[in-house]
Amino acid sequence: MQKNGSEIIMEVLLEQGVDTVFGYPGGTVLNIYDALYKYQDKITHVLTSHEQGASHAADGYARASGKVGVCIATSGPGATNLVTGLATAYMDSVPVVAITGNVPTSLLGRDSFQEVDIAGVTMPITKHNYIVKDVTKLADTLREAFRIAQSGRKGPVLVDVPKDVSALMCEYEPKAKIQPDPMPKLRLDKIQTAADYINAAKRPMIYMGGGIIAAGAQKEILAFAEKLQIPVASTSMGLGGFPSDHTLFTGMIGMHGTYMSNKAVDDSDVLIVVGARFSDRVAGNRTGFAHNSKIIHIDLDPAELNKNVNVDLYITGDIKEALSALLELTNEVKSRPWTDEVKAYDRRKAMTTGGIGVNPQKVIETISKMNSNDSIMVTDVGQHQMWTAQYYNFRQPRTFISSGGLGTMGYGMGAAIGSQFSMPDKRVVLITGDGSFHMNLNELATVQSYNLPVVIVVMNNSVLGMVRQWQKIFYGNRFAATSPGRKTDFVKLAEAFGIKGMRISSDDEIESVLSEAFAYGKGVLVECVVSPDCNVLPMIPPGGSVTDTVDEM
Amino acid sequence: MEDKLIISILVNNCSGVLLRIAGLFSRRVFNISSIAASETEDSKFTRITIVTVANKDEFRQIQKQLLKLEDVKKVILLTQENSTAIELLLMKVNADESTRPSVLNTIVKYGARVRDIGSTTMTVELTGFPLDIDKFVADMSVHGIAELARTGITALERGDNTIKLSEF
Fold first, then answer.
1. Are A10 and A152 within one domain?
2. Does A182 contact B at CB distance below 8 Å?
3. Which residue ranges in chain A fall short of pLDDT 70?
């Protein structure tokens, strides 16, 4: 049947099972928005305050659900406002399809009003991108975008559609939902070698990452760790992929990971790295990382082999399948002295308030107790993010939504909105800091407009805490630009947006205020007054290893 | 050990593909000594020949990162032994009445060809191995080089092996 380009976009979105998109209208996407109007019974369009919010919302939607997130923006500034969101999704391998308008093909390349070469701009931060200049190729190009976003190591894809293409008519032929590419075949000889290493190991250790969640391999990793009694450390991206309260779980690994995790990796004789990529926040010292260990690296992306740390054995393929195969070939271990040795490495300390205000650790722990297993914790980036990663008891995958690789301050509001739209029945809590929150607090308007029951907890220490912490350690307490002295009244701010505002000023208010906030059932902001001197500890300085751990400051 | 490597890349012949390849090299901090690209016998594909300085591990990383690009179909390493690697030089060399015979002698010695003659210069073409071109340029420099352009290496495997388009 004949349809115009914009209707074709709607039809392909429906083919792919998309029912929610995030975006912001503008001149060159007017045709697309006209189609969204026509298709409003089938596709919900969520209007954010800013295109960046839409890009983070699409990302949060994808992370919380495992489906592809979709965002739409107009040409020029609309498109460039997606850039941070796409880069965030790219670094954390999140499947997102971004659709941008562009000036009509006849005006391309002439510095036309609101023209930008967004395909050129986003080339290094997308898996692939397209500019569609021929309406007859539009449907298949968009299908390809969905295939690429979901195939192999997932990631964002951008499709740029000039305005004339979104208006032109052409024949549309419906097709079935596109399937991701098949996974690469596992090399069984390598699995056998890995099993031999593991069976012979005395001090085996697992270092898992976000790949466990992307692959849906939480059951397999749990079964594998339990069968062989292997302690498990997780990157921040992997949190939720293994129950945090499990006896074999040693906590987060890396710069702000537990001493137990970092020491155990350092002391291990066989390190099984699953769905992780030896980032500099984990393997600060690339050449000294797990230097006593035979390293087995299991990942879907062959380019991760020896990219950062050289390994002894590499297994490319579906992590879930690889772990199942390993489970078959490895011998059960009832108990091993090593797990007790690892437990003795636990030197976690209780946090203090730093003199004034609330203890952020207690806030996170209280939320952890009040939440159910499937509640979703979204964070921004900074100290509050690390406190959440350290003190929240994650019990299920896709419950920790946080910008890991790119470290995007301002990510949280959009991501919380996206998470809530993908999981309308689950509780969504955003933990943010005053620094991150100031970046994209405009999205409070979106929370209010759509009546989203997101609980926003602002850890207000009145400083840019993480950067300030580095200034304390490495820059002789010269607090350049980290004490902005802002007088924002967060309670009044929330109220100005039509959202309930609350405040926690001391530890004894934590439970009562949070109970009220959670019972409220609508969007609510809770400001926690935190001391500027609460630090994230322990900390391994950049480039360092476990022996450089800073426990106190 | 770092070597000059010749990487032959078969890619979709579509707009922006050269930018994708060059951009990948740039952002991953791989270097490009030279790059040459053109359509293949099948107009759907372009072959890009890149000369880079890398060791074997770095090459493997380059290869794998390239293969993650949607438009990249195949990446092979060509070595001096298994390939014919040729470059084209165009050079405008100073040559007036008095020096022309001596310039021509060098041209004949290297099997180069005269493509144009001006009143004070000659434009010379040489196709051959990069090392020979280097030597030719060095020999000619005594006359004074007014202008010079080199294409960078383009290369094919020796023997009957091909990069085999039919697989795609």
1. yes
2. no
3. none
Q: Is the dihedral of CA A63, A64, A65, A70 positive or negative?
A: negative
Beta bridge partners of A131: A160
* pLDDT confidence of residue B132: 95
Q: Is this structure's pTM higher than 0.90?
A: yes
Residue carrying structure tokens 């530890």: A507
Query: pLDDT tens digits, residue range A195-214?
Result: 999 999 999 999 999 999 99
Residues A154 and A14 placed together within one structural domain of the fold: yes
Fold of the domain built from segment(s) B84-154: Alpha-Beta Plaits (3.30.70)
May I ask the CATH architecture of the domain B3-78? 2-Layer Sandwich (3.30)
Facing residue for B61 by CB, picked from A127, A128, A307? A307
CATH number at residue A367: 3.40.50.970
Give the pLDDT score at A98. Answer: 99
Tell me, what's the pLDDT at A239? Answer: 98
Q: Do domains B3-78 and B84-154 have the same CATH topology?
A: yes
Q: Give the model's pLDDT for residue B7.
A: 96
Q: Most distant CA pair in chain A: distance in Å?
A: 72
Q: Which two tokens stand for residue B127?
A: 């196709």
CA distance A307 to chain B (A): 7
d(CA B87, CA B64): 27
* pLDDT of the residue at B165: 58
- For residue A498, the model assigns a pLDDT of 98
What is the number of structural domains in chain A?
Answer: 3
Contacts of A375 (CB under 8 A, 6+ apart): A399, A426, A427, A428, A429
Report CA-CA distances (Å) from A169 to A130, A229, B18.
Answer: 20, 62, 32
CA distance A353 to A363: 11
For residue A130, give the H/E element and its range: strand A128-131
Q: Is the pLDDT of residue B168 over 80?
A: no
Buried b (16+ CB within 10 A) or exposed e, A245-258: eeebbbbbbbbbbb
Q: List the single residue in A with minimal CA-CA distance to B14.
A: A130
Cβ-defined contact of A120 to B16 (cutoff 8 Å): yes
Q: Is A236 helix (H, G, I), strand (E, B) or coil?
A: helix
Q: SS3 of A367, please?
A: helix
CA A301 to chain CA mean position, Å: 18
Residue closest to A270 by CA, chosen among A199, A212, A220, A364: A199
Structure tokens at A352: 């203090």
Of residues A8, A238, A310, the one with CA closest to residue A143 = A8
Q: Per the structure block, which two tokens stand in for A542?
A: 């950049």
Closest CA to A89 of A69, A109, A107, A73: A69
| B160: CB partners within 8 A, 6+ apart | none
Query: Which has the higher per-residue pLDDT, A111 or B163?
Result: A111
Q: Taking CB atoms and an 8 Å cutoff, what residues of chain A touch B19?
A: 120, 123
The domain ranges of chain B are 3-78, 84-154
Mutate which of A128, A140, A157, A300 to disrupt the B interface (most B C-beta within 10 Å)? A128
